[in-house]
Amino acid sequence: MRFTVAIVGRPNVGKSTFFNRLIGHRKSIVDDISGVTRDRIYDIAEWNGKQFYVIDTGGFVAHSQDVFEKEIRRQVELAIEESSAIVYMVDVLTGITDLDEFVAGLLRKVNKKKFLVVNKVDNHERLLMAQEFWSLGFDQLYPVSAITGSGTGELLDDLATLIPPEEIIPEDLPKFAIVGQPNVGKSSLINALLGEERNMVTEIAGTTRDPIHSEYNKFGKRFMLIDTAGIRKKARVSEDLEFYSVMRAIKSIEEADVCFLVIDATLGLEMQDMELFSLIIKRNKGLVFLVNKWDLIKKETNTAVQFEKQIKEKIAPFTDVPILFISALEKQRVFQAIETGLQVFENRNRKITTSKLNDIMLEAINKIPPPSYRNHLIKIKYITQIEKEYPLFAFFSNYPDEIKGNYKHYLENQLRANFRFTGSPIRMLFKEK
Q: Residue 75's pLDDT is what?
């Protein structure tokens, strides 16, 4: 198990601010409202040449019947269970509360290295105030300011001594983002794939706010899964929190290699799904459509063939994309989705040699040449693939600006017919030779 540090504590002590400081950028949502961080958020931190995972957890609320607070408590317990060390954060300004005592009692039963961190200590007076937290019974106390970073160096030095020196986190793993509207079953899909309740699932739309990274390492396959906040229409984004969630979901698309666009089989492909589709294609990401809740559809009224045809009519001209019909709840074809995603990742990274590219494409061009321009023959003399993380081809011509859209579609279709690029957008440049 990779070395993992979980940050726990009651709400509003500054856990997410501290998490953002450790990883070096703003990832967890920070807000004055209790319960902003709901799921466990993962990222990689580095100190003294050593890398480790950090988990930001929701604010721990004991014995609450609120649906989110109950889920937060469960998520914190899961984070404690899977962590190698625990950072227990308290707030110097409020002093020791009953909830702090409760969490401390819970942590004392955990046989793992624990670090008591007193946050918001940014002057000498607060440093003196922090001393009362020794009564919680921990071996060491670290007064810090998560906002300014003061005091964090000593804590990280002590943390780094626990990390095995050979611990290296690969950065070249394929990244798959699970995107879609709220309540289409994204988190249920992740849980089905990982075989555990990694992400929070409730009947309330928008439960997932932050993107959540989970490593998949089973059956000889290894990659990162990114669950994102459900993306709604702009008019429906009323909360600041949801606004930031949507921004992070879009950022997850930017980060991903392949996006699984999950749509609800009972609703079909809606306008907001089309917006997501356009966003993924514009960002040159691989794409797999996952039609979830297929177990709820009466097959005599709507077959998979009909449903697929309807989708491809809406997304034309880019129809060379896999469409799978799944049920995350019943675990139907969810692992086939992984196989398909890995194939799309391979397709997106496919490199064609220049000689093979010219042999095949010039023959197709000679068979159907581009329409002439003002009685001048347009000739494409040379094609090469440009080194990029997605398929990008340069066509050299005597009149590059006069090659029309219809002929460009013909060239793209020839590339797809002769080389396997299913699920990946293809980009073409036309340059003067």
A: 59
The answer for residues whose C-beta is within 8 angstroms of residue 412's C-beta and 6 or more apart is 426, 428
Q: Which residues contact 132 (CB under 8 A, 6 or more apart)?
A: 95, 96
Q: pLDDT tens across 147-160, in order?
A: 998 889 999 999 98
Span 65-70, average pLDDT: 57
**pTM for this prediction:** 0.62
Question: Of the given ranges (53-62, 236-245, 371-380), which has the lowest mean pLDDT?
Answer: 236-245
CATH class as words, domain 175-348:
alpha beta
pLDDT tens, position by position, 302-319: 688 999 999 999 999 999
Residues above pLDDT 70, as percent of the chain: 78
Q: What is the Cα–Cα distance from 312 to 257, expressed in whole angstroms?
A: 22
Q: Which amino acid is at 179?
A: V
Q: What does the DSSP assignment read for 208-245?
A: --S-EEEEEEETTEEEEEEE-PPP--GGG--SHHHHHH
388: its two tokens: 């990029």
Closest CA to 268 of 330, 311, 301, 234: 311
Q: Do 354-432 and 175-348 fall under one CATH topology?
A: no
Q: Strand, helix or coil at 430?
A: strand
Tokens 């000689």: give the residue: 355
Neighbouring residues of 176: CB distance < 8 A, sequence distance ≥ 6:
223, 224, 225, 226, 256, 257, 258, 259, 260, 341, 345
336: left (phi over 0), alpha (psi -120 to 50) or beta: alpha
Q: What are 330's two structure tokens?
A: 């019943």
For residue 99, give the amino acid letter.
Answer: L
> pLDDT for 106-160, tens place per residue?
888 888 899 999 999 989 999 999 999 999 989 889 999 999 988 899 999 999 8
Sequence spans of domains, the chain: 4-160, 175-348, 354-432
What region does 88 belong to: left with phi over 0, alpha with psi -120 to 50, or beta?
Answer: beta
The CATH architecture assigned to 354-432 reads 2-Layer Sandwich (3.30)
Task: Return the amino acid letter for 202.
Answer: T
Report the C-alpha gap between 213 and 44 in whole angstroms: 10
Q: Which fold has domain 4-160?
A: Rossmann fold (3.40.50)
